[in-house]
């Protein structure tokens, strides 16, 4: 029997069908379409004990009567009696029978129908009968008069913005429209840093909206950028997914863009007392700070004002200038304002300058500009954390002609050397720092002193002023490529209240908690990041471990890659994780001084008390110079129930660090046993953007560095990314934020 045939036993023995025994199928149109059934082409077969009778019934009459529509389209040997096909008592097959339904209105232009083939009149219960080869249903389909609709308008929202510490942003909205869908479905929405709401009051990160009983939905969804996130740009999509009611597509993305910007100093000339009616020199408080205005007045003629009720009117003579006479604290990032020419006046060029020494010297910001009739925007980056003054003046400094220009909405953004929770590279592709708990600047009252450990070369050494009341967390990082040797060859330290606090940089990171100052606010802090200088001991170890043997002894193993001028190794042990408390437990083990890798081992048989034991390896040069490696540790039990706590007990994906990050982050994980690991990174659309594969021949702690680029080396946009680890039967997923 061919593979596409289907036959069975236990058909009815009598001359009537058993309504519970049939071969059947159902046809259902997708939403928005209807169909017509024209023909069913089929073959039947039986053995010598099989059935004599076959008939087709349909759902139009609830399978009540046989359908009679064969005409002459029957295989030789079959006879038709009102839709009941009778076969001769033979062990054979009858292919190519055609049941015509194109003239049966109940099966034309419909959404769903079903058909059943009944076989009966078997010779014995073990008789076999059924379909011979494949069955073919022919027909047509077309859209219904009311096609399904699932749409979102608009699919792009921008301009979400607020000053740091003042969120959330103002809301914007999009509309979801669903019509003529299958009832019982629902629309699910979710975002990341963008919150969503149906009433612009109660916001969440996810929503579920059910379709009505007639398969429709009309809903306005409000969106805003959540509060409390760090300075930066945020480009992210809100996913709108249709469930259990598919019109041929079921996911629409709403792309959102916004930013958290620095606080600013704003001059819009609309404040009380911000008035000056002539060009004669005078001082005016603008935005709460004193300005000197020479050949400048504050225009009130609405025919010439750029925005609001007032704008600055600069005469255009060589002495025309408006200059801050008081420092603006909190530095200056971007300075920008609107400008245009006054009427049909001839024009001259203008420049913007800034001073960080109370006006003793001035530096130009950006390039000069010449107003025209159309409104334009001047923008320049100053990027100084020092207190600053701004001057806008005629560029040439000469002439008495009237060449008037209008200026309005002057903004000077605050600027800090370190923004709260924003990682910053402090050396080229090497070291990074992130301050948590407030902003920070390079100190103007302190300079770095002597390094806390002269055995480390300085990668970064600077004094900072932590701003605010505290407490703070100071996270330091070193790219793993800079560490050169896997292990603790980099170290960080911070100094406050004249005391240094240090920590080894492990897996590229070290973090410090800094308490609030007393008295406050603000705290002075010295930061040092260093790399161990070239080792004085000419030995390179690639492995040092301590494990228990079956005999309940401690087996110490280490592997040197190269040795030169090395006398040997001493093994030290302690019950505390403190090298100063350790004691030597054996005679020196002689070195091989080979340029090739060499494995060493030592068996400690002298443990008699339960507890955790720590081991160090001391390498000794010919000139007596020493260096230490370790510790490695074991848990010893006199009963033999011991182990090595340094080996992970589970396979697990760890948090990425830093997070948020720019441009790099380290994804960390641990393995309880040797194996292969795959790390996949996805964007918010669920698209794979980068993949890493690793193979490890030992249990342990590992990490990979991601540079924020896709598999083709292209820099990715800011936003939320998911990273997924698979290893054997383990799978884990976490979230990280790329923030530019």
Give the class-level CATH name of the largest domain: Mainly Beta
Query: Going by CATH, what is the homologous superfamily of the largest domain?
Result: Galactose-binding domain-like
Describe the largest sheet: 6 strands, antiparallel
Number of strands: 55
Global outline:
flat
The residue-averaged pLDDT reads: 90
- Give the low-confidence spans: 483-487
Measured between the Cα atoms of the first and last residue, the distance is 66 Å
Give me the CATH fold name of the largest domain: Jelly Rolls
Structural class: mainly beta
Judging by the overall fold, what is the CATH architecture of the largest domain?
Sandwich
**Percent of residues in β-strands:** over 45%
Task: Describe the protein in words.
With 740 residues, the protein is mainly β. It has 6 domains: 6-143, Jelly Rolls (Sandwich), CATH 2.60.120; 149-261, Sandwich (Immunoglobulin-like); 264-413, Jelly Rolls; 424-520, no CATH class; 539-636, Immunoglobulin-like (Sandwich); 652-738, Immunoglobulin-like. Helix content is 1%, strand content 51%. Strands 20, 23, 24, 26, 29 and 31 form a 6-stranded antiparallel β-sheet that branches. A 6-stranded antiparallel β-sheet has the order 21-22-25-30-27-28, with no helix packed on it. Strands 1, 3, 7, 9 and 10 form a 5-stranded antiparallel β-sheet that branches. It starts with 5 loop residues before the first strand and ends with a strand.
């Amino acid at each position: 029997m061919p593979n596409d045939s289907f036959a069975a036993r236990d058909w009815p023995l009598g001359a009537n069908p058993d309504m519970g025994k049939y071969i059947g199928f159902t046809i259902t149109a997708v939403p928005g379409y209807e169909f017509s059934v024209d023909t069913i082409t089929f073959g039947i077969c039986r053995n010598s004990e099989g059935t004599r009778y076959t008939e087709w019934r349909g759902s139009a009459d609830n399978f009540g009567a046989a359908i009679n529509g064969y005409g002459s389209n029957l295989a030789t040997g079959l006879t038709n009696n009102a839709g009941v096909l009778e076969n001769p008592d033979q062990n054979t097959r009858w292919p190519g029978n055609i049941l015509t339904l194109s003239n049966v209105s109940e099966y034309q232009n419909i959404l769903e129908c079903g058909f059943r083939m009944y076989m009966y009149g078997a010779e014995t219960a073990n008789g076999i009968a059924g379909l011979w080869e494949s069955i073919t249903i022919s027909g047509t389909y077309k859209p219904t008069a009311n096609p399904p609709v699932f749409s979102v308008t608009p699919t792009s929202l921008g301009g979400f913005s607020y000053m740091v510490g003042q969120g959330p942003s103002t809301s914007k909205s999009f509309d979801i429209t669903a019509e003529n869908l299958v009832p019982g479905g629902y629309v699910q929405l979710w975002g990341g840093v963008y919150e969503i709401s149906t009433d612009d009051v109660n916001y969440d990160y996810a929503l579920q909206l059910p379709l009505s009983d007639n398969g429709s939905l009309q809903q306005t969804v409000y969106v805003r950028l959540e509060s409390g996130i760090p300075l930066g740009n945020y480009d992210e999509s809100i996913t709108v997914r249709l469930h259990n009611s598919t019109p041929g597509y079921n996911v629409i993305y709403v792309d959102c863009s916004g930013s958290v910007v620095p606080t600013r100093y704003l001059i819009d000339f609309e404040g009380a007392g911000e008035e000056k009616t002539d060009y004669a020199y005078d001082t005016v408080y603008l935005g709460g700070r004193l300005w000197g205005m020479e050949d400048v007045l504050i225009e009130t003629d609405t025919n010439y004002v750029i925005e609001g009720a007032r704008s600055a009117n600069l005469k255009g003579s060589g002495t025309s200038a408006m200059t801050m006479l008081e420092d603006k604290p909190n530095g200056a990032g971007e300075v920008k304002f609107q400008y245009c020419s006054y009427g049909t006046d001839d024009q001259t060029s203008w420049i913007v300058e800034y001073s960080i020494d109370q006006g003793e010297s001035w530096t130009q910001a950006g390039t000069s500009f010449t107003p025209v009739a159309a409104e334009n925007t001047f923008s320049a980056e100053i990027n100084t954390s020092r207190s600053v003054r701004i001057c806008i003046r005629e560029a040439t400094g000469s002439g008495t002609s009237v060449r008037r220009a209008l200026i309005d909405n002057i903004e000077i953004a605050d600027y800090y050397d370190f923004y709260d929770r924003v990682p910053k590279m402090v050396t080229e592709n090497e070291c990074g720092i992130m301050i948590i708990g407030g902003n920070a600047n390079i100190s103007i009252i302190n300079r770095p002193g002597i390094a806390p450990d002269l055995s480390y070369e300085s990668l970064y050494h600077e004094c900072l002023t932590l701003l605010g009341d505290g407490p703070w967390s100071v996270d330091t990082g070193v790219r793993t490529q800079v560490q050169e040797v896997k292990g603790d060859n980099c170290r960080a330290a911070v100094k406050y209240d004249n005391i240094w606090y240090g920590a080894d940089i492990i897996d590229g990171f070290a973090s410090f908690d800094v308490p609030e100052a007393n008295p406050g606010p603000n705290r002075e802090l010295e930061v040092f990041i260093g790399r161990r200088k070239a080792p004085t001991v000419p030995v390179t170890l690639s492995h040092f471990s301590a494990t228990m043997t079956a005999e309940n002894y401690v087996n110490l193993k280490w592997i040197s890659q190269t040795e030169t001028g090395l006398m040997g190794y001493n093994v030290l042990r302690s019950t505390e994780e403190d090298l100063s408390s350790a004691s030597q437990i054996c005679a020196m083990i002689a070195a091989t001084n080979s340029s090739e890798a060499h494995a060493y081992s030592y068996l400690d048989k002298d443990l008699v008390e339960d507890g955790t034991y720590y081991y160090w390896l001391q390498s000794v040069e010919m000139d007596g110079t020493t260096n230490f490696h370790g510790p490695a540790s074991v848990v010893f039990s006199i009963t033999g129930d011991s182990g090595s706590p340094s080996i992970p007990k589970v396979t697990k994906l760890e948090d990425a660090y830093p997070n948020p990050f720019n441009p790099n982050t380290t994804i960390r994980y641990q393995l309880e046993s040797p194996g292969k690991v795959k790390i996949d990174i996805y964007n918010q659309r669920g698209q794979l953007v980068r993949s890493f594969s690793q193979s490890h021949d030992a249990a342990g702690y590992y990490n990979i560095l991601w540079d924020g680029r896709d598999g083709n080396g292209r820099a990715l946009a800011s936003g939320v990314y998911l990273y997924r680890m698979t290893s054997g039967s383990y799978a884990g997923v976490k979230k990280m934020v790329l923030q530019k």
